[in-house]
Fold these 3 entries.
Entry 1:
Amino acid sequence: MWFLMLDMSKAYDRINIPMLRKALERIKMPKRITQILTGLFTNRTNQVFTPTGLTEPFDMLTGIDQGEIISPLLWIIYYDPLLARIRNTNLGFRMEAKEYLDVYENVYRSRLVTFPECAYMDDTGFITNNKLNLERILKIADSFYRLNDIKINKQKSELLLRKNVSKKKPLESVVKIKFGEDEIEVSKPTACNQSSRFLGVWINAFNDNRHVEQQIRNEIKAIIKNISCRKGITDKMMIYFFNMLIIPIVEYRSQLYVIEERILERLMAPFRSFIKNRLKFAKTAPNAILETHFIYNLNNLVANQK
């Protein structure tokens, strides 16, 4: 598996208005609405705040306003031709599975899904089964970026690489990839025991979630440390912190993984011990005292994941 995450610079500021008009025409947008939308971002001037006052007005030749409500939708329309073109190539990552139609007669059919890209706004990643297909996708993407004047920091791209790794054949320290007309060097592809962040979640090519578990453990320790040094924190407030702060953190960090029950219990243990200590409970006091709805109603990480 080859998963290359791109670094795009100032996406909204570099939108070409004539090309945006063509993108709107591609989805059969009515001409009048197209004129209104493109008219919002043409024949404009801008000024910059400086310590000595405003600068002289200058013409805004390209780009749309990042703070506009409609800007994210316009970017999707503008960027979709590239994604549609890549999907039609069937060069993406292929997943095949059996769909059982009758479990008793062992009747099934094969289902094949091709997944070439993962994109949200200006975050884009291309995923394939091999290097050759990745370079073919990058050639298509590079032509689109050049045509539309979209700036990609090619040398800052991150690579998740999954292939057979051993002590005799470790991951290469530098991987050379042909990106359109250029050849980039991706230094240090993400190691087997490390993760890369993409769209707010941490991804590991070998489905190793130890990095995520450590993040959750550090978050819980930081919250416990913050609470322990403050006076006046009541028992109900501590329960609230766990239910309304720690639980969402765990859910956010573990979006791509199902964490084993024993690990969730291990993650929850420090906070349980902290609360019992604050309440002057014995360490051997049943956890049910904290988790029952009739007393504290402390949410359980295991039950919450189910």
Entry 2:
Amino acid sequence: MQFLIGTILQELLDELRSPKHFDHLFTLLDPCPPLELTRPTHVAAARLRANCRAKGVSGGAIDFLITAACCQYGFPLLTADQDFAHIPRHCHLVTLPT
């Protein structure tokens, strides 16, 4: 089963300019249940980001929130985003190539 973080859903849909494409992608993604993010997820994301920054690894807050959620639930991350390339060295994130 595939899960989807609400932030990722929004990012994917935000990129579409055509209402037709928006509706089509939403229809494809709608069966994926949302992955609920809790306060501990947000705290873990902030802690991981701070630890990574201290070691010279940068990334956006949302990238670390996605990472923390994947680590919390034990899910791999399917991504083509190179921002995630160095994060797995500092946590239990497993990335899958696209």
Entry 3:
Amino acid sequence: TDGELDRRVALRTTRQKRLESGLTLWAVIDEAVVRRALGGPEAMREQIGHLLDATAERNITVQVMPFESGGHAAAGGSFSILRFPERELPDVVYMEQLTSALYLDKPADSDHYMEVMDRLSIQALEPKQTRRFLEQLLSR
């Protein structure tokens, strides 16, 4: 529904603003995310430009998982690992779905997803390579 869409957009906007306060973000994104022109070419250029701007921030790391890497540990779907400054709070794995979201807070689950994230960050382009890759996409 339109109300649900508005709520999700507002939530994402709020999360983006939190990055300005120094929160750390490490994202590994599939190459398809920057190749599939949703919203048209101009919207994609703006999105890629935004990613490039983000790579210049000290608290943001972006890596692209290139097609040539083949299959990878997160091919089944995206996930986020939320880590809180309060040590007594457990890490939480968050997976957004079409009509709901799943939160995993058991240490065994978050440890498993952390291992997956470690593998993804090794398999993906390094941050500097990612920046060059995004610059090349914009120059086309």
